[in-house]
Amino acid sequence: MQVKNACARRASLQPRTPRIVGNNNSTTTSLDEQHAITTQILGFLLHPFIPPPSPTAKIADVGTGTAAWLLDLARSLPPTCQFTGFDVTPSGFPHESARPKNVTFKLHDMFVPFPEEEHGNYDVVAVRFVSSATRRGDFARAVGNLVKLLKPGGWLQWIDSVNFGLYCGVAGLSREACQEVYEGLEPFRSQAAGGENGKGEDDGGPVIGLFVRDAWPSKARAVRERVFQEQGLVDVHEDVFSTDRLQKPELRLREKGTRNIMDCFLGCLGELVGVEGSGWTKERLDALRVKVMREIDGGVYHTLDQVCLVGRRPEQG
Ligand SMILES: C[S@@+](CC[C@H](N)C(=O)[O-])C[C@H]1O[C@@H](n2cnc3c(N)ncnc32)[C@H](O)[C@@H]1O
């Protein structure tokens, strides 16, 4: 089974879930659009706890995709800084003619230890929107690999989504079709949790990612922060921003964002078509899509929590 859309790329973070192949213009457009919106919601590319990079700084973006974040940051820093984008697939990498001289791209899966020549090289390592439903153990493994990339004193920043919610823009709306899509993602959550019962080696569900709903948000935050601390980081902190933070009705962000995310979820469900016992057929999905878009036309919208975790590698150790 191969995953083919931008959203399901996040699912590919899990070692046991499929890898994506290929890329297309609409995927690129939606990632770039998502970048612009996210940057406005958060209000930063680098968390304010991270000191402004020096003119000789080296910055890595892991799971870089189209490198929207990395290229934006490169534009805002001196051209003497060096930028590296890592990804498991080159399909999103910008064409060579569109790459500034100080930006390079490398293939790497963050679950696999990085080559030793990459260790201790980077002032900042950033990760954004790479997970759909990641267990604590997998999260810790990725963070452990990323920490090794940092120079002493360097910072890790991980931005991801959790806590999808559906809301009515006006009274009396049906949200059933949108809800059916979100609930349909359960097989991906169970898979991440290590089996049908949602119990895996971590004895709990996924702790970070787009499909994750924190049962107890303060505990979930503490778990994620503890993973950073256990991997040797200090000054660990998680912020959370709602996608609703930006109030610019003229941009129709609620509607556009909800269409984007439902498109993305429907793409993930498309991966279940033909999977025995899934209950998903192309006809069911097509009919559901029509209902979903009608609900959004009527004013149903979503929110997500965008969490930003930061932590610093100590100068010593
Ligand atoms: C939704 S895109 C986000 C791209 C970019 N970070 C952004 O915020 O625009 C997720 C990206 O993570 C990459 N990815 C998924 N699992 C990965 C892994 N284990 N190691 C490295 N990259 C991974 C995918 O190939 C994809 O390009």
TrEMBL record:
Natural source organism: Humicola insolens
Protein name: Methyltransferase type 12 domain-containing protein
Tree of life domain: Eukaryota
Signal sequence region: none
Family matches, as CDD domains: AdoMet_MTases
Pfam families on file: Methyltransf_12 (PF08242)
Lineage of producing organism: Eukaryota, Fungi, Dikarya, Ascomycota, Pezizomycotina
UniProt domain Methyltransferase type: residue ranges: 61-156
Region (Disordered): 1-29
